[in-house]
Each structure stands twice: as structure tokens, then as C-alpha cells.
Amino acid sequence: MADTEALTSAVEEYIEAIHRLSGDDDAPTTSRLAGHLKVRPASVTGMMKRLADLGLVSYKRYGRISLTAEGKRRARSLIRRHRLAERLLVDVIGVPIDQVHNEACRLEHALSPGVESRLAQALGDPEACPHGNPINASSRNRTIALIDAPIGHPVIIAQLEDESPEVIRYLAERKLTPQTQLTITGREPGGGAVVMDVDGEQCTISRDLAATIRVTKVRKRKRK
User: Fold this and answer.
1) 3-state secondary structure the chain
2) Per-residue pLDDT, 118
3) What is the CATH number of domain 78-139?
């Protein structure tokens, strides 16, 4: 059973990926999971059978994949270790933010619960990783996707959901990093690109990329 078995790195990567791809009312398919992990669909099918036997997923052939309660617990623990590792790498060692995700993927599997607890304490119990994503993956998300932000109203970038090096590098070059304030000034016709004002400069990104950026609305100051 999953409670007593030490999971392999491959198994952990799968349940973490399923959690990351699962929305509030959606669950990933085998093809989507294969694309995310860059493996063959047949490999995903084989792993789903194993994860189901371990009691970590609910899976039907050609259907969608969902984590069981135990699967969610395991995935959230992995994500917590991953994001703490990212904070260590960026804050203490000085690894560039566009390189930290892949390095943390290697470290997360090696951290024991005791070391994880000590690491969190040493880092001052941070609330978010360098990309703005919450250390506690079960935290309530009060942000909205940039693609859904209203035109003309300033927002602040809270989270970058896509942590791949090329995406983070692309966003950083355009000053689209956590805590940056911006204003959507328009959207191209036909569901096209999103046009924004970022620090007085015009910036345009694709609709798909804007969907991976989470923002919060800027609160208006109360008049005295």
C-alpha cells in the first residue's frame, strides 16, 4: 500500500504532475499528461495501472485521471518540498530563477520530512516559492488568471504557473515577474494576444501564456 511503500522518483513525478494539471472542475487525460511529462501515452497508461494499484489515482481507460485522497496528500507533500527547495536555491545559493525549477525537481525527492521541516524553519517559513506559488499547495487561491483581468484596471502578478526555464526567461525579459504591476490595455481580435502596459512600456503576450499568469487586483486606497 502507498502508506508503507517508499515511492520511486518516477511515481512521485507522475502524481505531482497530475496534481499540477488538475483544475477545480477538471482532471487531466492520459494524452495531456503524456505531453506534460514528454513521454509516450503507452508509458502513462502503464503507470496509471501501477498508481491505481497503489491507491493513489482513480483511472479508467480512455478517461480522465484523478488523485485519491492519499494521492493528493502525497502530491501536496512533494510540491511543498519542491517549492521549499526553490526558495533555498534562490535565496541562499543564488541560483537564477529561470534555472531553479529543474534543480528543485532533483532535490525534492531527496528531502526527508525531518529535513523538510528544518528547511522551512531555516528559511523563515516562507509562504510562496520564487515564482509566487504557495508553499502549501492546498492553500485557497484568491488570484485570477491574467487573461480574465479587466481592461484598464491595474493588477499585480502573484504567481507564474508555468515554471519551465524558457517561459520564466521569456517573462523575466519582459519584466513579468511576481509583484510587478501592470494594466491590460487591450486584446487583439479573435481571442488573440493580450496587450499590456508594464512600467510605462507596451508588452504583448499570447492568450495561452496569459492564462498561466495569476494576478490580484490593486486595491484602491480609501480616502481620508
Assistant:
1) CCCCCCCCHHHHHHHHHHHHHCCCCCCCEHHHHHHHHCCCHHHHHHHHHHHHHCCCEEECCCCEEEECHHHHHHHHHHHHHHHHHHHHHHHHHCCCCCCHHHHHHHHCCCCCHHHHHHHHHHCCCCCECCCCCECCCCCCCCCEEHHHCCCCCEEEEEEECCCCHHHHHHHHHCCCCCCCEEEEEEECCCCCCEEEEECCEEEEECHHHHCCEEEEECCCCCCC
2) 95
3) 1.10.60.10
The amino acid present at 198, given as its one-letter code, is V
CA distance 210 to 194: 7
The x, y and z cell numbers of residue 178, run together, are 511576481
Domain spans, the chain: 9-67, 78-139, 144-217
The predicted structure's pLDDT at residue 100: 94
Which of the four pLDDT bands, split at 50, 70 and 90, describes residue 131? very high
Determine contact, residues 157/179, Cβ cutoff 8 Å: yes
Tell me the mean pLDDT in the region 164-168.
93
Quote the pLDDT of residue 24: 54
- pLDDT value for 205: 95
State whether CATH 2.30.30.90 applies to domain 144-217. Answer: yes
- Name the average pLDDT for the chain: 89
For 9-67, give the CATH class.
Answer: mainly alpha
β-partners of residue 59 are 65
The pTM assigned to this predicted structure is: 0.83
